[in-house]
Design brief:
150 residues, single chain, 6 helices
């Protein structure tokens, strides 16, 4: 994960299909990292794919719709910090139980949203600056060369 502007590949004078150029740019950006970590950059067959990370505003609310409700990433769009899949599975389970125990879809959605929306807001608040904290640690060199394996 890096803090880069949209269009960083083109702005760097590279093309999205320039695997060697992007690899060189990444090796430079992560030059202080341990050799096993750098192998994720050097020992792949490309091409690289730019995958921006987005997060919803905290708290994220929307207008209630009786037959539509957010589930999974739609309800918890946040940086990948280890809770998204668990929240999505919990959402799915709670929505299924609400549907099974309600007489109408609208009633089920209201019951589901009654617990899901506060949980989503709490999780978003808890993780709101999580990606930023990781990036700050990387930028300071605090985790450079960490012994992570991948």
């Amino acid at each position: 994960m890096q803090r880069l502007p949209a269009g960083w590949i083109t702005a760097s004078g590279l093309r999205v299909d320039d695997t060697a150029g992007i690899r060189a740019r990444l090796l430079d950006a992560f030059s202080g990292w341990s050799p096993p970590m750098l192998q994720m950059i050097t020992d792949n067959d490309g091409p690289y794919v730019d995958r921006p990370l987005f997060a919803l505003l905290v708290p994220h609310t929307g207008e209630h719709t009786p037959t539509v409700t957010p589930l999974g990433d739609a309800a918890h769009l946040m940086p990948p910090l280890g809770v998204g899949a668990n929240l999505a599975m919990l959402d799915a389970c709670e929505l299924a139980l609400a549907l099974a125990g309600s007489t109408t879809v609208g009633e089920a959605i209201r019951a589901y949203e009654k617990t899901m929306l506060p949980r989503a807001a709490d999780a978003a608040r808890m993780l709101e600056n999580g990606a930023e904290a990781l990036l700050e640690r990387h930028d300071s060199g605090e985790i450079a060369g960490a012994g992570w394996t991948g």
